Amino acid sequence: MKVRIISLNGLLWQGEAKKVILPTKMGQISVLDNHFSLLSFLDKGKVIIEIADQEKKEFQVEKGFLKVNKNEVDLLI
Fold first, then answer.
1. What values do phi and psi take at 25, rounded to 5?
2. pTM, rounded to two decimals
3. What pLDDT sits at residue 55?
4. How far, in Å, CA of 22 to CA of 32, rounded?
5. What was the pLDDT predicted at 54?
6. 11-58 per-position pLDDT tens digit
7. What's residue 75's pLDDT?
8. Fold held by 2-76
9. Beta-carbon-side half-sphere exposure of residue 2 (alpha carbons within 13 Å)
10. Pick from 43, 35, 37, 42: nearest CA to 65
11. Where are the domains of the chain?
12. Rounded distance, CA 55 to CA 70, Å?
């Protein structure tokens, strides 16, 4: 799935991922391929993007917004 992390300063990261783990107001969630459409607020915590078997990217967030639609994940932080 395609993942984009966008801040007020512009695009922070973009790429393909196998899994994204996110802190939301309702608790931690995982997003995989073919996840249902979702809109949610992000909570303070760590976003973990699993790119390959042993490769991960991590971003610390204070708050933000999540949109999942048609194998695309957009994070506005």
1. -60, -25
2. 0.92
3. 94
4. 12
5. 85
6. 999 999 999 999 999 999 999 999 999 999 999 999 999 998 789 999
7. 98
8. ATP Synthase; domain 1 (2.60.15)
9. 5
10. 42
11. 2-76
12. 24
Q: What is the CA radius of gyration of the chain?
A: 11
Distance CA 4, CA 21 (A): 14
Do strands 38-42 and 2-7 pair parallel, antiparallel, or not at all (unpaired)? unpaired
Per-residue H/E/C for the chain: CEEEEEECCEEEEEEECCEEEEEECCEEEEEECCCCCEEEEECCEEEEEEEECCEEEEEEECCEEEEEECCEEEEEC
For residue 51, give both structure tokens. Answer: 């790119």
CB atoms within 10 A of CB 17: 21
